[in-house]
Amino acid sequence: MNIFISAIGTDSGKSVVSAIFTEALNADYWKPIQAGFPTDTETVHKLLPTPKEKLKEAYLLKFPMSPHASARKEGVQVELNSIKIPPHTKANLVIEGAGGLMVPLNDEDCVIDIVEKLNLPLVLVSNTYLGSINHSLLSIKEIQRRGLNLLGIVFNGERNEDTESIILKHAQVPCLLKVPQLDEVSTTVIKDLANQLNQTLSQHLNAVIHE
């Protein structure tokens, strides 16, 4: 199974959540487009309790900005058709996007177009901050408009029941995991959260089977 991890914005915790899903699903991890250093591939692999093969990015850009802007500074054109699942990968695959869903890759395509092109189920990471409801619902509405498969929401950081409940009401999908506000992220933390995620996924699967 391949899963795409996106978020309502930049610095929402996609890499931490990607590490959790990679561990929980015994998957490989892939970041198709990286802009800036250190890379998220390096970050995720440092967090993984179980070592994995490092998969090469489709585009590795130097500047820490939107992919379309970073590519332009380097004289590179990001082509959606060049972004393909690594052919030698046989395991489950967790794919991390760049920024939010509507971050531009070039003048025409956005991150969400990768999800649509590769026909990937999607997990959306949401945070609690002033404006996060708006950002979450806009992301959810675009996912729904395109008919994409939203598997669930992961809430990352400080809890807010009012915010979480309204987001889930509009998403009409389960909360797969609540990642607490973490002072430090370690392999032990990732392992514990991966175990929690597996329990939630098992419960959700059983509920679907018995509907």
From TrEMBL:
Residues binding ATP, per UniProt: 11-16, 40, 96-99, 180-182
Cofactor: Mg(2+)
InterPro entries, A to Z: DTB_synth_BioD, P-loop_NTPase
Active site: 31
A GO molecular-function annotation: dethiobiotin synthase activity
UniProt keywords, alphabetically: ATP-binding, Biotin biosynthesis, Cytoplasm, Ligase, Magnesium, Metal-binding, Nucleotide-binding
Binding site for Mg(2+): 15, 40, 96
Quaternary state and interactors: Homodimer.
Similarity annotation: Belongs to the dethiobiotin synthetase family.
Protein known as: ATP-dependent dethiobiotin synthetase BioD
Source organism (scientific name): Flammeovirga kamogawensis
High-level lineage: Bacteria, Pseudomonadati, Bacteroidota, Cytophagia, Cytophagales
